[in-house]
Design goal:
The chain is an alpha+beta fold and 260 residues long. It folds into 3 domains: 6-137, Trna Endonuclease, Chain: A, domain 1, CATH 3.40.1350; 145-189, no CATH class; 196-260, Double Stranded RNA Binding Domain (2-Layer Sandwich), CATH 3.30.160. 21% of the residues lie in helices and 36% in strands. It has 4 helices and 14 strands. It has helices at residues 55-62, 113-140, 225-228, 240-254; strands spanning 6-9, 18-24, 27-40, 48-54, 67-74, 79-84, 97-103, 153-160, 168-174, 179-181, 184-187, 201-207, 216-222, 234-237. The longest helix has 28 residues, at 113-140. The radius of gyration is 31 Å and the shape is elongated. 15% of the residues are buried.
Amino acid sequence: MPTNWVSERITNDYGVDLRVDIFESKRATGLEFLVQLKSSTRATKGRIERLRLRLVTYNYLVNKLQVVMLVKYIEETNEAYWILLRDIPPPDQMRQTFTIQIPKENTLSTISWVNINNHVRKVTGDKLTTREQIEQFRKEFKEYLCPFCGSELISRIDAPADPSEDHWDVRDTFSCGFQRFGNFIEQPCPSDPRFPQFEDFELHYSYIPEEPIHKWQCFAIGKTDMARKLGLGFGLGETKEEARNQILKEYNHYAKNENN
């Protein structure tokens, strides 16, 4: 490795052993790559050096933004072999471990660090460009996503803001249930920290003995401003508990507590 590059052993990052910072002369470039180290006493026979890797480690490394290099050191020959993670065929996700084959011409003693430098520079530049494009996309399409959970816009209509229809505004409805009319929230998003709890509703019951089946009715009235934006309707049941559970089921639907 070039003497002006700096390697740092990583002790608190699962799956990464070294981080290498690339320098040009004495100037830091901001470029870096990661190294996963393995070792063995004896070399594998043939023209391929084999390296076993856990699937969870591979999946962790493949999601890193930095370039990742895997290196296997052989003690008897005092040689190390390397391969870039991008050159490893994707493994079977049903297995716990898999074998990586490193061509023995990939010796660390003959590696072209210029090529590694250029590759790291290109990959880093491409990923930064992609990140900037994603951020720009988010800014451009922000109005089409729920501001609380990022759910997509499913409906946008112009609607009158007063009975005489002198003033109009836009009503947006999102897949999470969030609905707004202009800047006014008509139905809250379940991810909004202000989303009402079930305890924010006052339950009123009525008993109608002449009803053959649904003798009990339950009405939910919001006790807070946010709760009043959630129309839970009324629940019917043969018992008071059944009527209450109908209201609770409707609340869980709005709150996305589908398992409750």
